[in-house]
Specification:
The protein folds into two domains: about 1-15 and about 245-440, Enolpyruvate transferase domain (UDP-n-acetylglucosamine1-carboxyvinyl-transferase, Chain); about 20-245, UDP-n-acetylglucosamine1-carboxyvinyl-transferase, Chain (Alpha-beta prism). Helices cover about 30% and strands about 25% of the residues. The protein has helices at about 20-30, 45-55, 105-115, 135-145, 180-185, 205-215, 250-260, 280-290, 325-330, 355-365, 395-405, 425-430, and strands at about 1-5, 10-15, 35-40, 60-65, 80-85, 100, 120-125, 145-150, 160, 170, 195, 220-225, 230, 240-245, 265-270, 290-295, 300, 315, 340, 370, 375-380, 385-390, 410-415, 435-440. A four-stranded mixed beta sheet has the order 22-23-1-24. Helix 1 runs parallel beside helix 6 (about 205-215) and helix 7 packs parallel to helix 11 (about 395-405).
Protein backbone atom coordinates (compact mmCIF):
# COMPACT_ATOMS: atom_id res chain seq x y z
CA UNK A 1 0.00 0.00 0.00
CA UNK A 2 0.89 3.67 -0.27
CA UNK A 3 0.32 6.26 2.43
CA UNK A 4 0.45 10.00 1.82
CA UNK A 5 0.90 12.27 4.84
CA UNK A 6 0.22 15.99 4.46
CA UNK A 7 1.95 18.78 6.39
CA UNK A 8 0.37 19.47 9.74
CA UNK A 9 0.65 19.10 13.49
CA UNK A 10 -0.68 16.51 15.90
CA UNK A 11 -2.73 17.20 19.01
CA UNK A 12 -5.05 15.31 21.33
CA UNK A 13 -4.36 11.93 22.90
CA UNK A 14 -2.98 8.66 21.52
CA UNK A 15 -2.81 5.22 23.16
CA UNK A 16 0.30 3.20 22.38
CA UNK A 17 -0.03 -0.57 21.78
CA UNK A 18 1.75 -3.16 23.87
CA UNK A 19 5.47 -3.73 23.81
CA UNK A 20 6.74 -6.14 21.17
CA UNK A 21 9.74 -7.03 23.35
CA UNK A 22 7.54 -7.90 26.33
CA UNK A 23 4.89 -9.68 24.24
CA UNK A 24 7.31 -12.09 22.59
CA UNK A 25 9.17 -12.81 25.84
CA UNK A 26 5.82 -13.39 27.56
CA UNK A 27 4.78 -15.89 24.89
CA UNK A 28 8.06 -17.80 25.11
CA UNK A 29 8.14 -17.89 28.91
CA UNK A 30 4.48 -18.98 29.02
CA UNK A 31 5.22 -21.76 26.53
CA UNK A 32 8.17 -22.98 28.62
CA UNK A 33 6.18 -22.82 31.86
CA UNK A 34 4.23 -25.43 33.72
CA UNK A 35 0.56 -24.50 33.82
CA UNK A 36 -1.56 -21.83 32.20
CA UNK A 37 -0.68 -18.18 31.64
CA UNK A 38 -2.74 -15.12 30.72
CA UNK A 39 -0.99 -12.34 28.80
CA UNK A 40 -3.16 -9.20 28.79
CA UNK A 41 -2.77 -6.20 26.49
CA UNK A 42 -0.37 -8.08 24.20
CA UNK A 43 0.71 -6.45 20.97
CA UNK A 44 -1.61 -7.41 18.10
CA UNK A 45 0.83 -7.31 15.17
CA UNK A 46 2.49 -9.36 12.46
CA UNK A 47 5.49 -10.06 14.69
CA UNK A 48 3.20 -11.39 17.43
CA UNK A 49 1.37 -13.53 14.86
CA UNK A 50 4.68 -15.01 13.73
CA UNK A 51 5.62 -15.93 17.30
CA UNK A 52 2.21 -17.47 18.00
CA UNK A 53 2.36 -19.43 14.75
CA UNK A 54 5.73 -21.07 15.47
CA UNK A 55 4.75 -21.90 19.06
CA UNK A 56 1.56 -23.57 17.86
CA UNK A 57 3.66 -25.53 15.37
CA UNK A 58 5.63 -26.75 18.40
CA UNK A 59 2.42 -27.99 20.03
CA UNK A 60 1.71 -25.05 22.36
CA UNK A 61 -1.98 -24.29 22.88
CA UNK A 62 -2.60 -20.55 22.56
CA UNK A 63 -6.08 -19.02 22.73
CA UNK A 64 -6.06 -15.53 21.22
CA UNK A 65 -9.77 -14.99 21.86
CA UNK A 66 -9.54 -15.00 25.64
CA UNK A 67 -11.63 -12.28 27.36
CA UNK A 68 -10.31 -9.44 29.45
CA UNK A 69 -7.22 -8.49 27.52
CA UNK A 70 -7.62 -4.80 26.79
CA UNK A 71 -5.11 -2.80 28.79
CA UNK A 72 -6.11 0.38 30.66
CA UNK A 73 -6.05 3.41 28.37
CA UNK A 74 -6.23 1.31 25.21
CA UNK A 75 -9.34 0.83 23.13
CA UNK A 76 -10.75 -2.61 22.26
CA UNK A 77 -8.69 -3.96 19.41
CA UNK A 78 -5.52 -2.24 20.62
CA UNK A 79 -4.33 -5.40 22.36
CA UNK A 80 -4.81 -9.14 22.69
CA UNK A 81 -5.54 -11.42 25.61
CA UNK A 82 -3.53 -14.59 25.10
CA UNK A 83 -4.19 -17.69 27.16
CA UNK A 84 -1.22 -20.05 26.88
CA UNK A 85 -1.01 -23.65 28.12
CA UNK A 86 2.67 -24.21 28.88
CA UNK A 87 4.65 -27.30 27.93
CA UNK A 88 7.26 -27.25 30.74
CA UNK A 89 9.93 -26.82 28.07
CA UNK A 90 9.04 -30.01 26.18
CA UNK A 91 7.61 -29.34 22.72
CA UNK A 92 6.33 -31.46 19.83
CA UNK A 93 8.48 -31.99 16.77
CA UNK A 94 7.14 -29.61 14.09
CA UNK A 95 5.93 -31.02 10.82
CA UNK A 96 7.59 -28.29 8.76
CA UNK A 97 10.08 -25.42 9.15
CA UNK A 98 9.04 -22.69 11.59
CA UNK A 99 8.36 -19.53 9.61
CA UNK A 100 9.37 -16.45 11.62
CA UNK A 101 8.36 -14.14 8.72
CA UNK A 102 10.01 -10.75 9.39
CA UNK A 103 10.41 -11.18 13.15
CA UNK A 104 14.06 -11.23 14.13
CA UNK A 105 13.09 -11.14 17.81
CA UNK A 106 11.04 -14.32 17.39
CA UNK A 107 13.83 -16.08 15.50
CA UNK A 108 16.71 -15.19 17.80
CA UNK A 109 14.86 -15.89 21.05
CA UNK A 110 13.33 -19.14 19.78
CA UNK A 111 16.63 -20.61 18.53
CA UNK A 112 17.83 -21.41 22.04
CA UNK A 113 14.43 -22.83 23.01
CA UNK A 114 14.65 -25.17 20.02
CA UNK A 115 18.10 -26.23 21.20
CA UNK A 116 16.49 -27.61 24.37
CA UNK A 117 14.70 -30.27 22.30
CA UNK A 118 16.03 -33.67 21.34
CA UNK A 119 14.73 -33.44 17.77
CA UNK A 120 15.60 -31.16 14.84
CA UNK A 121 13.77 -27.85 14.54
CA UNK A 122 14.11 -25.96 11.27
CA UNK A 123 13.63 -22.20 10.91
CA UNK A 124 12.96 -19.96 7.96
CA UNK A 125 11.78 -16.39 7.37
CA UNK A 126 11.15 -13.75 4.76
CA UNK A 127 13.74 -12.29 2.40
CA UNK A 128 14.92 -9.72 4.94
CA UNK A 129 15.30 -12.28 7.72
CA UNK A 130 17.32 -14.50 5.39
CA UNK A 131 19.96 -11.75 5.34
CA UNK A 132 20.22 -11.35 9.13
CA UNK A 133 23.00 -13.42 10.68
CA UNK A 134 22.60 -15.36 13.90
CA UNK A 135 26.23 -16.46 13.81
CA UNK A 136 27.46 -15.63 17.34
CA UNK A 137 24.34 -17.18 18.90
CA UNK A 138 24.59 -20.33 16.79
CA UNK A 139 28.23 -20.82 17.72
CA UNK A 140 27.39 -20.39 21.41
CA UNK A 141 24.65 -23.02 21.13
CA UNK A 142 27.05 -25.40 19.40
CA UNK A 143 29.62 -24.96 22.16
CA UNK A 144 26.90 -25.91 24.69
CA UNK A 145 26.08 -29.16 22.91
CA UNK A 146 23.50 -28.26 20.28
CA UNK A 147 23.94 -29.13 16.61
CA UNK A 148 23.27 -26.60 13.86
CA UNK A 149 22.79 -27.34 10.18
CA UNK A 150 23.09 -24.27 7.96
CA UNK A 151 21.04 -24.52 4.78
CA UNK A 152 21.10 -20.82 3.91
CA UNK A 153 23.79 -18.26 3.27
CA UNK A 154 26.31 -18.08 6.09
CA UNK A 155 24.60 -18.11 9.48
CA UNK A 156 21.19 -16.96 8.22
CA UNK A 157 17.95 -18.90 7.91
CA UNK A 158 17.05 -21.40 6.64
CA UNK A 159 18.81 -23.48 9.28
CA UNK A 160 18.11 -26.35 11.65
CA UNK A 161 18.89 -26.63 15.37
CA UNK A 162 18.90 -29.86 17.37
CA UNK A 163 19.51 -30.36 21.08
CA UNK A 164 19.86 -31.28 23.74
CA UNK A 165 21.47 -28.16 25.13
CA UNK A 166 23.85 -29.64 27.69
CA UNK A 167 25.14 -26.33 29.09
CA UNK A 168 28.51 -25.22 30.35
CA UNK A 169 30.60 -22.18 29.51
CA UNK A 170 29.87 -20.27 26.30
CA UNK A 171 31.18 -17.07 24.79
CA UNK A 172 28.87 -14.85 22.75
CA UNK A 173 29.49 -11.46 21.16
CA UNK A 174 26.24 -9.52 21.05
CA UNK A 175 25.97 -6.83 18.38
CA UNK A 176 22.30 -7.38 19.17
CA UNK A 177 21.22 -8.03 22.74
CA UNK A 178 18.79 -10.68 21.51
CA UNK A 179 21.59 -13.27 21.35
CA UNK A 180 22.19 -12.97 25.07
CA UNK A 181 18.46 -12.79 25.89
CA UNK A 182 17.95 -16.02 23.95
CA UNK A 183 20.57 -17.86 26.00
CA UNK A 184 19.28 -16.42 29.28
CA UNK A 185 15.74 -17.62 28.60
CA UNK A 186 16.80 -21.16 27.74
CA UNK A 187 19.53 -21.60 30.35
CA UNK A 188 17.26 -22.42 33.34
CA UNK A 189 15.91 -25.49 31.49
CA UNK A 190 19.28 -26.75 30.25
CA UNK A 191 20.92 -29.74 31.93
CA UNK A 192 23.93 -28.01 33.48
CA UNK A 193 23.01 -24.36 33.14
CA UNK A 194 25.04 -21.79 31.26
CA UNK A 195 28.03 -19.68 32.21
CA UNK A 196 27.82 -16.95 29.57
CA UNK A 197 30.80 -14.70 28.87
CA UNK A 198 29.96 -11.57 26.87
CA UNK A 199 32.92 -9.65 25.34
CA UNK A 200 30.58 -7.31 23.40
CA UNK A 201 27.06 -6.21 24.30
CA UNK A 202 24.86 -3.61 22.61
CA UNK A 203 21.35 -2.63 23.72
CA UNK A 204 21.90 -3.37 27.40
CA UNK A 205 18.44 -2.26 28.61
CA UNK A 206 16.85 -5.12 26.64
CA UNK A 207 18.96 -7.59 28.59
CA UNK A 208 17.66 -5.93 31.76
CA UNK A 209 14.17 -6.51 30.39
CA UNK A 210 14.91 -10.22 29.95
CA UNK A 211 16.42 -10.42 33.43
CA UNK A 212 13.26 -8.80 34.82
CA UNK A 213 11.31 -11.73 33.36
CA UNK A 214 13.68 -14.21 35.01
CA UNK A 215 13.30 -12.39 38.32
CA UNK A 216 9.50 -12.38 38.07
CA UNK A 217 9.75 -16.17 37.68
CA UNK A 218 12.14 -16.55 40.64
CA UNK A 219 14.81 -17.92 38.32
CA UNK A 220 18.20 -17.94 40.04
CA UNK A 221 21.12 -16.29 38.25
CA UNK A 222 24.24 -14.30 39.03
CA UNK A 223 26.20 -11.77 37.04
CA UNK A 224 29.51 -9.98 36.92
CA UNK A 225 28.49 -6.61 35.52
CA UNK A 226 27.79 -6.96 31.83
CA UNK A 227 30.66 -9.37 31.16
CA UNK A 228 29.40 -12.63 32.62
CA UNK A 229 26.04 -14.21 33.46
CA UNK A 230 25.63 -17.55 35.22
CA UNK A 231 22.29 -19.36 35.20
CA UNK A 232 22.01 -22.76 36.93
CA UNK A 233 20.15 -25.50 35.07
CA UNK A 234 17.33 -27.69 36.33
CA UNK A 235 15.01 -24.79 37.09
CA UNK A 236 11.41 -24.27 35.99
CA UNK A 237 9.09 -21.55 34.76
CA UNK A 238 5.53 -21.27 36.09
CA UNK A 239 2.29 -19.88 34.74
CA UNK A 240 1.50 -16.19 35.25
CA UNK A 241 -1.06 -13.43 34.68
CA UNK A 242 0.59 -10.27 33.40
CA UNK A 243 -0.27 -7.02 31.65
CA UNK A 244 2.03 -5.98 28.80
CA UNK A 245 3.18 -2.34 29.10
CA UNK A 246 3.03 0.02 26.14
CA UNK A 247 5.86 -0.02 23.60
CA UNK A 248 8.38 2.83 23.82
CA UNK A 249 9.78 1.95 20.40
CA UNK A 250 6.36 2.53 18.84
CA UNK A 251 5.74 5.58 21.03
CA UNK A 252 8.93 7.17 19.68
CA UNK A 253 7.18 8.21 16.46
CA UNK A 254 4.48 10.08 18.35
CA UNK A 255 7.03 11.49 20.80
CA UNK A 256 8.98 12.94 17.87
CA UNK A 257 5.78 14.20 16.24
CA UNK A 258 4.94 15.98 19.48
CA UNK A 259 8.45 17.40 19.67
CA UNK A 260 7.95 18.91 16.21
CA UNK A 261 4.84 20.81 17.32
CA UNK A 262 4.35 23.58 19.84
CA UNK A 263 0.91 22.23 20.75
CA UNK A 264 0.89 19.45 23.36
CA UNK A 265 0.30 15.82 22.46
CA UNK A 266 -0.79 13.35 25.15
CA UNK A 267 0.54 9.79 25.00
CA UNK A 268 -0.95 7.13 27.26
CA UNK A 269 0.21 3.78 28.59
CA UNK A 270 3.94 4.45 29.00
CA UNK A 271 5.66 3.23 32.15
CA UNK A 272 8.82 5.25 32.75
CA UNK A 273 9.98 2.60 35.23
CA UNK A 274 9.97 -0.18 32.63
CA UNK A 275 13.24 -1.63 31.30
CA UNK A 276 12.64 -0.88 27.62
CA UNK A 277 15.66 0.87 26.14
CA UNK A 278 13.68 3.34 24.07
CA UNK A 279 12.28 5.02 27.16
CA UNK A 280 15.56 6.97 26.93
CA UNK A 281 14.08 8.84 23.96
CA UNK A 282 11.98 10.88 26.39
CA UNK A 283 15.07 12.23 28.16
CA UNK A 284 16.81 12.86 24.83
CA UNK A 285 13.89 15.02 23.70
CA UNK A 286 13.92 16.91 26.99
CA UNK A 287 17.63 17.60 26.59
CA UNK A 288 17.06 18.89 23.06
CA UNK A 289 14.53 21.42 24.35
CA UNK A 290 11.12 19.72 24.39
CA UNK A 291 8.56 20.31 27.08
CA UNK A 292 7.72 16.99 28.76
CA UNK A 293 5.39 16.20 31.65
CA UNK A 294 4.89 12.72 33.07
CA UNK A 295 1.87 11.99 35.26
CA UNK A 296 1.71 8.28 35.97
CA UNK A 297 1.29 6.62 32.57
CA UNK A 298 0.21 9.83 30.85
CA UNK A 299 3.02 11.68 29.09
CA UNK A 300 2.48 15.11 27.56
CA UNK A 301 5.02 16.43 25.06
CA UNK A 302 5.42 19.57 22.98
CA UNK A 303 8.24 21.30 21.19
CA UNK A 304 9.72 24.59 22.38
CA UNK A 305 7.26 27.45 22.79
CA UNK A 306 7.37 30.36 20.34
CA UNK A 307 9.44 32.46 22.75
CA UNK A 308 11.93 29.66 23.50
CA UNK A 309 15.07 28.62 21.57
CA UNK A 310 14.52 25.99 18.87
CA UNK A 311 15.43 22.35 19.36
CA UNK A 312 19.13 21.90 19.98
CA UNK A 313 21.35 19.49 18.07
CA UNK A 314 24.45 17.73 19.33
CA UNK A 315 25.47 14.14 19.99
CA UNK A 316 22.97 11.44 20.96
CA UNK A 317 24.27 7.99 21.91
CA UNK A 318 21.76 5.46 20.57
CA UNK A 319 23.49 2.23 21.58
CA UNK A 320 20.75 1.42 24.10
CA UNK A 321 17.91 2.50 21.80
CA UNK A 322 18.80 1.69 18.18
CA UNK A 323 15.19 1.56 17.02
CA UNK A 324 14.90 5.30 17.65
CA UNK A 325 17.32 6.18 14.84
CA UNK A 326 14.76 6.58 11.99
CA UNK A 327 12.46 8.90 13.93
CA UNK A 328 15.27 10.95 15.46
CA UNK A 329 16.82 11.33 12.01
CA UNK A 330 13.67 13.18 10.94
CA UNK A 331 13.83 15.30 14.09
CA UNK A 332 17.40 16.28 13.21
CA UNK A 333 16.21 18.22 10.15
CA UNK A 334 14.40 20.63 12.50
CA UNK A 335 17.20 21.16 15.02
CA UNK A 336 19.17 24.39 15.22
CA UNK A 337 22.51 22.60 14.76
CA UNK A 338 23.44 19.18 13.33
CA UNK A 339 22.12 16.18 15.23
CA UNK A 340 24.68 13.37 15.49
CA UNK A 341 23.16 9.95 16.15
CA UNK A 342 26.16 7.86 17.20
CA UNK A 343 27.40 4.57 18.72
CA UNK A 344 24.70 2.56 16.98
CA UNK A 345 26.48 0.26 14.47
CA UNK A 346 23.82 -2.41 15.02
CA UNK A 347 21.33 -0.16 13.17
CA UNK A 348 22.96 -1.42 9.98
CA UNK A 349 21.91 -4.98 10.85
CA UNK A 350 18.20 -4.48 11.47
CA UNK A 351 15.44 -5.15 8.92
CA UNK A 352 17.48 -2.88 6.65
CA UNK A 353 20.67 -0.90 6.97
CA UNK A 354 18.74 1.88 8.67
CA UNK A 355 21.69 4.28 8.65
CA UNK A 356 22.01 4.11 4.87
CA UNK A 357 18.26 3.97 4.23
CA UNK A 358 17.47 7.02 6.37
CA UNK A 359 20.38 9.01 4.90
CA UNK A 360 19.03 8.27 1.45
CA UNK A 361 15.44 9.08 2.42
CA UNK A 362 16.32 12.44 3.97
CA UNK A 363 18.33 13.33 0.87
CA UNK A 364 15.38 12.37 -1.35
CA UNK A 365 13.21 14.76 0.67
CA UNK A 366 15.66 17.61 0.13
CA UNK A 367 17.51 17.37 3.42
CA UNK A 368 21.13 16.65 4.16
CA UNK A 369 22.43 13.64 6.05
CA UNK A 370 25.86 12.03 6.26
CA UNK A 371 26.54 8.43 7.13
CA UNK A 372 29.01 7.52 9.85
CA UNK A 373 30.32 3.99 10.32
CA UNK A 374 28.24 3.80 13.51
CA UNK A 375 25.57 6.42 12.96
CA UNK A 376 24.18 9.40 11.11
CA UNK A 377 24.67 13.16 11.07
CA UNK A 378 21.53 15.09 10.13
CA UNK A 379 21.80 18.77 9.25
CA UNK A 380 19.10 21.41 9.73
CA UNK A 381 17.06 21.66 6.54
CA UNK A 382 13.61 22.18 5.10
CA UNK A 383 12.11 18.96 3.80
CA UNK A 384 10.19 18.95 0.53
CA UNK A 385 7.35 16.68 -0.51
CA UNK A 386 8.26 13.59 -2.50
CA UNK A 387 7.66 9.86 -2.86
CA UNK A 388 9.97 7.70 -0.74
CA UNK A 389 10.11 3.93 -0.36
CA UNK A 390 10.12 2.35 3.10
CA UNK A 391 12.60 -0.33 1.94
CA UNK A 392 10.23 -2.79 3.60
CA UNK A 393 11.21 -1.55 7.07
CA UNK A 394 8.37 -0.79 9.47
CA UNK A 395 10.28 1.83 11.45
CA UNK A 396 11.45 3.61 8.31
CA UNK A 397 7.85 3.74 7.05
CA UNK A 398 6.64 5.34 10.28
CA UNK A 399 9.55 7.80 10.38
CA UNK A 400 8.75 8.93 6.84
CA UNK A 401 5.14 9.49 7.87
CA UNK A 402 6.37 11.86 10.59
CA UNK A 403 8.53 13.58 7.96
CA UNK A 404 5.34 14.26 6.01
CA UNK A 405 4.04 16.33 8.93
CA UNK A 406 6.93 18.81 8.70
CA UNK A 407 7.66 18.79 4.96
CA UNK A 408 6.60 21.67 2.73
CA UNK A 409 4.34 19.34 0.68
CA UNK A 410 2.88 15.85 1.12
CA UNK A 411 5.17 12.84 1.51
CA UNK A 412 4.06 9.56 -0.08
CA UNK A 413 5.47 6.37 1.39
CA UNK A 414 5.50 3.28 -0.80
CA UNK A 415 5.34 -0.13 0.84
CA UNK A 416 3.82 1.70 3.80
CA UNK A 417 1.81 -1.25 5.08
CA UNK A 418 4.89 -2.73 6.75
CA UNK A 419 4.14 -0.46 9.71
CA UNK A 420 1.73 -3.19 10.79
CA UNK A 421 4.65 -5.48 11.61
CA UNK A 422 4.90 -3.77 15.00
CA UNK A 423 2.29 -0.97 15.04
CA UNK A 424 -1.09 -1.98 13.60
CA UNK A 425 -3.35 1.00 13.08
CA UNK A 426 -0.45 3.45 13.02
CA UNK A 427 -1.83 5.61 10.20
CA UNK A 428 -5.32 5.59 11.74
CA UNK A 429 -3.87 6.84 15.02
CA UNK A 430 -2.00 9.59 13.17
CA UNK A 431 -5.26 10.66 11.55
CA UNK A 432 -7.11 10.56 14.87
CA UNK A 433 -4.58 13.09 16.22
CA UNK A 434 -5.24 15.51 13.38
CA UNK A 435 -2.95 14.36 10.57
CA UNK A 436 -4.29 14.24 7.04
CA UNK A 437 -3.42 10.73 5.84
CA UNK A 438 -4.47 9.12 2.58
CA UNK A 439 -4.03 5.37 2.13
CA UNK A 440 -4.18 3.66 -1.26
Amino acid sequence: MKATVHPGRLSGRVAIPGSKSHTIRALLVASLAAGESLIRGALDSEDTAACIRILRDLGVKIDDTAPGGTAPGRKPGDGLALRVVGRSGVFDAPAHPLDCANSGTTLYLALSLAALQGFPVSFTGDEQLQRRSAGPLLRALESAGARVTREGTGDCVPLTVRGPLEGGEVVVECPTSQYLSSLLLAAPLSKRGLDIRVPLLNERPYVELTLSWLESQSIAYSRDGWDRFTVPGGQAYRGFDRLVPADFSSATFFLVAGALSNSPLEITGLDMNDSQGDRGVVRVLERLGCRVNVDGQLLTIAGPAADEPPLAGGDVDLNAMPDALPALAVLGTRCATPLRLVNVPQAREKETDRIAVMARAITTLGGRAEELPDGLVVHPSELAGSTVDSAGDHRVAMALAIAGLVASAPVTITNAGVAGITFPGFYEKLAACGARVEEA
